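TL;DR need structure tokens for one chain.
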Amino acid sequence: MAIPAFDKDQRRIVQELRKAGALSRSALAERLEISPTALTRISRELLAQGVVEEVGEGAAQGRGRPAIPLRLAPGGGYAVGASAHKGLLDIALVDFAGEVVASHREKSDPIDPLGFARRVRRLTHDLVERHGLLGQRMLGLGVAVPGPALSPEGERWSVVEDMPGWRGASLRSILSAELGWPLWLENDANAAALAEFYMGGLLREFATVVVVLLGYGIGAGVIVDGRLVRGQFGVAGEIGCLFPGDRPRPSPLDLLATLRASGCAVSSLGAIDMACPAQRAAIAPWMDRAAGQLEVVANTAFAWLDPGAVVLAGTVPGEVLEGLASRLRGAALVTTVEGRGPPVRVSALRGSPVTLGAALLPIHALSAGS
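>> reply
TL;DR here they are.
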């Protein structure tokens, strides 16, 4: 059974619980400036839909019934996220509260969209059955695409060349016909931004964030006032255009090329070994150069959007992300009032932020209305 679309006040309550955790009705009413009577009515509706639940008996607050906090109900619905990259297929299953129920990652030969959809359908069915979720409410499936949309409706995408049969294909039609669930398609950097915002806890501190993704290449996801920014033509955050492809770039592919040029036989990011002296000797100057290139990204993001955080995320080793962040923090970046500069930090998420964010797409669409 699908969840009816939330109205504005229902979304506000769901998002406040997602942000703050369990809260009493009186605390919710005060935070959202909703009358207690209206809050009681709306919370009753959400309880009936199964997306909110009461948390045992709270402490008594004066006379009358003790305050019973409300929280998001994990069993309010489940969603699946999937992503495919060169040599890798990744899936995550999450609940309505945004917690990971299960995940699966496997090496994969190059796979076309139809083969991808069929493999995702089989793996998803296995995960759902293994975790006793048959018959539970399934909100939908999100797929993260490595490349920008070619049209605002997101039917065709400029997918990276290493994925045969994807670029320019009618992805929504192909995937929907095979998967059967409500489907969301999103750029991989935007998906990563959602993962950082919800699972990385950024929404507890900030409403506006920029996530720089070092994934296949380099891109950014932008969230302003809790909503993804896609731009007029759906390509907001395509910061790769700042770094021409025929020159060295601050991207994972460029890092691998640098390592191979130095004599290190490294074929994938997973093969990078920071304990190897030869690799470290090649990576250090690459980080110096890449951080210098990323200064323009941090500066312009800060000047235009005033984000609460600029997060570096991706599949490169954490030590590389930390090295880039440290160099950026030590650079002469722009400042505004009271000497504030770009608030650079590193992702603390475990697992692929791209796949986790893809799983959150149906939940974000329902909760945030975008």
